[in-house]
Amino acid sequence: MNECVKKVKGKVTTHLLLPLVLGACVFFIGIGISIVDFELGVIPMVVSLIYMLIVFIMYKINKPIMVHELISFAMEYAQVQKELLQDFVIPYGLLDKSGDIMWQNAKLKEILGKEDYKTKPINSALEELNLDDIEELEENEVSSQEIIHNGRNYRVELKKVNVQSIFGRSNILNLEDVQEYLIAVYLFDITEEKRLTKENYEQKMIAGLIYIDNYEEALQSVEEVRRSLLTALIDRKLNKYAANVDAVLRKVEKDKYVVVLKQKYLDVLQSDKFSIIDDVKTVSIGNDISVTISIGLGVGGATYNDNFDYARTAIDLALGRGGDQAVVKDGDKVYYYGGKTKQVEKNTRVKARVKAHALREVLQNKDKVMIMGHKIGDVDSFGASIGVYRTAKAMNKKAHIVINEITSSVRPMIERFIESDEYEEDLFLNSHQALEEIDNSTVVVVVDVSRPSYTECEELLEKSKATVVLDHHRQSSEIIENAVLSYIEPYASSACEMVAEILQYIQDGIKIKPLEADAMYGGIMIDTNNFSQKTGVRTFEAAAFLRRNGADITRVKKMFRNDIGDYKARATAVSNAEVFLDAFAISECPSENIESPTVTGAQAANELLNINGIKASFVLTSYNDLIYISARSIDEINVQLIMERLGGGGHMNVAGAQLENCTVEEAKIVVKDTVREMISQGEI
Questions:
Q1: Residues 274-287: what's their mean pLDDT?
Q2: 3 confidence band (pLDDT: 50, 70, 90)
Q3: Is residue 569 classed as helix, strand or coil in its secondary structure?
Q4: Which of 67, 352, 582, 583 could form a disulfide with 615 if both were Cys (CB 3.0 to 4.6 A apart)?
Q5: CA-to-CA dists, residue 335 to 267, 296, 311, 328, 649, angstroms
Q6: Residue 212 neighbours by CB under 8 Å, 6+ apart
Q7: Exposed e or buried b per residue across 337-352, where buried means at least 16 C-beta atoms within 10 angstroms of its C-beta
Q8: What is the reported pTM?
């Protein structure tokens, strides 16, 4: 630090010079009197001069003594402050600009330890402390950070203090040419505060719902006299699991439970990946169908009502994804656990009939119907749209199908509709035309997709006053908000199967034209890979209904024949396939000179499953600056879970995802790493 220039200043200087000012005043008074009476005025003038001379001499003699006394007082005052700081209950210290300790009080020294850290960096004692940003602080600005030292939590506050500004405010001394700064450091022990905060957080209540997915089907698979035993065993499993985490479980219906537990037990449930889901499946007293459950938990709400609303949303997601899983909704975040079991087809059509009646009510109150599927529409999306179109026409409603890009897979069908005189010229609209047509009396029906961003025209959903969703894919956290009717059944083989069932209940004696029946039959055939995957009794019943209405298998097969380019691309993808981990096939499908490379890639993924030993296949296609991934499996691997890790979704056996800002080779590495990670975590 530069040498200090010592001066007396401020009120002390004024006080010392005040007698001289008073003497000067008397002198001038004497001058005024001398004008009237000279002899009388000389006396105060002489006296004042003698007085000022004596005062000046005394000022010169006493000034050094005064300065010394003032400095001594300041030092003693500073010493008192230093002693007070030394015994201050808050740990306090001063650092130089490099972070070395210049001074520390007793409390700070006690925290740092017996070792003498003076002139050493404070980071050598408090290793977590970060001083990198201290130079960017403004004067008197406080930087705060939390650290852990010797098992205790501290909030460290750092304050940049300019040395010149401190002494420049002094009324006694003046320091010139000082540009250095110091860092004041304060430590506040927040261990107890942290403990109480954590304890308060852990005591918060989580609301949950538990549903038995296949209650009726499981009971019907055992003898009537043993059904009560099956129910009792399920109840026992659930109650025991709840007791292990100090939860309150209450049965509200024959297959529904409400559960309440503390926040601190959520980590326990998540760490064992909700083992009760697999534990319930072990209940067996001769039942042919394993019992599965779905769990929905609501966390992070401002109130208990918010948590319960989150729980209802979570259980809807779990059921919409096929059940046999747990979903935790924490505010805007959603976490999935389980979902590895293949969905069991429900034999009853009660739900289809109820949804058909609900759809009829919605359509009756509107004048116009807009129908749309997902982007790069496939045969199932198109066939389901045609089925909804027939529903609207049966109720004498104006209907349009929104489609932007006509792929090679659906072009033969669309051309047949365009060439037919039985259909309006404005049957098919693009997004721009649809946005011009929509009004308050229009209902938007979304088929074969439940993600807004995947639809042909997301803006239609924003403008629509009434939206209906019909989909057979497992739901994700991205859903179409405020739908007046949502019918999502992951057990269904295709959207066309769902729409075919609805058509049978929407109106008595409804007639479907052969051309429409062909489109819907084709959707079922493509999504089931010629009825070899994901087919159930209701799939064949829907196909039979369409056959009765004129669907012709030969016509449909002719429309789905590939041209030579597509066939070669598919063959190239199969021949270049790479097998990793002895069970997974991955390949790239060429996209050059291919009209619908994503469809060809999906076909190649199906072909790869015919190779012995392959449990799942992944075919990557570069198209429109995106990498499209088609994932397929037979029964052992849930490819939907893998694709969800990559931001996609789908079914257990049929799924997909889209990656951006990467090459095909980079995407392959991402897929492989994801599969390896999920295997190591026991997810697949």
A1: 86
A2: very low
A3: helix
A4: 583
A5: 12, 10, 12, 5, 14
A6: 218, 234, 255, 256, 291, 292, 293
A7: bbbbbebbbbeeeeeb
A8: 0.57
Contact criterion met (CB below 8 Å) for 623 and 597: yes
How many other C-beta atoms are found inside a 10 Å radius of the C-beta of residue 76?
10
CA 534 to chain centre: 32
Backbone CA torsion sign across 49, 55, 59, 62: positive
- For residue 591, give the 3-state DSSP assignment: coil
And the tokens for 600? Answer: 């060809």
In the three-class reduction of DSSP (H, G, I as helix; E, B as strand; rest coil), residue 646 is classed as coil
* 678 contact partners, CB below 8 Å, separation of at least 6: 641, 642, 645, 684
In the DSSP assignment, the letter for residue 250 is E
CA nearest 487: which of 450, 434, 539, 435?
Answer: 450
What CA–CA distances, in Å, run from 264 to 205, 242, 277, 291, 334? 9, 14, 20, 29, 18
Contacts with 584 (C-beta within 8 Å, 6 or more apart), sequence order: 614, 615, 616, 617, 618, 672, 675
- Which residue type, as a one-letter code, is found at position 70? L
pLDDT digits (tens, 9 = 90+) for 175-219: 444 446 778 888 888 888 888 888 888 888 899 999 998 888 888
Percentage of the chain with pLDDT > 90? 21
Tell me the Ramachandran region of residue 237: left when phi exceeds 0, alpha when psi lies from -120 to 50, beta otherwise: alpha
Residue indicated by tokens 């060809």: 600
Residue 75: the pLDDT is: 58
Alpha-carbon distance 467 to 460, whole Å? 9
User: Which whole-number Å values give the CA distances from 285 to 218, 293, 347, 519, in the listed order?
Assistant: 11, 17, 22, 45
Q: How far apart are the first and last CA of the chain?
A: 68
Nearest partner of 464 among 436, 440, 437, judged by Cα: 440
- Tell me the C-alpha distance between 369 and 387, whole Å: 13
Tell me how far apart the alpha carbons of residues 472 and 539 are, in angstroms, rounded to a whole number.
12
Tens of pLDDT along 33-85?
A: 777 777 777 777 787 788 778 777 777 777 666 666 666 666 565 666 666 66
Query: Could you give the 3-state DSSP secondary structure of residue 249?
Result: strand
Q: What is the spatial distance between Cα 287 and Cα 542, in angstroms, rounded to a whole number? A: 28
Give the distance, in angstroms, between the CA of residue 17 and the centroid of all CA atoms in the same chain: 74
> For residue 429, what are the β-bridge partners?
402
Helices marked H in 37-124: 38-86, 106-112
β-pairing, 654-660 vs 626-633, is: antiparallel
pLDDT band at 117 (very low <50, low <70, confident <90, very high): low
**What mean pLDDT comes out for the span 10-15?**
61
The pLDDT value given to residue 475: 72
Length of the chain: 684
Quick one: pLDDT band at residue 139, thresholds 50, 70, 90?
Answer: low
- Count Cα neighbours of 165 within 13 Å in the Cβ-side half-sphere: 8
Are 472 and 489 in contact, with CB atoms under 8 Å apart? yes
Euclidean distance between CA atoms 519 and 507, whole angstroms: 20
Residue 342 has pLDDT above 60, yes or no: no
Q: Is the pLDDT of residue 136 over 80?
A: no
Longest dimension (CA), the chain: 145
> Do 405 and 596 form a contact (C-beta atoms < 8 A)?
no
Distance of CA 137 to the CA centre of its chain: 33
Instruction: Round to whole Å and give the CA distance between 678 and 337.
Output: 12
Q: Does the pLDDT of residue 226 top 50, yes or no?
A: yes
Task: At 87, list the tokens.
Answer: 């015994």
Strand-pairing partners, residue 619, are 587, 630
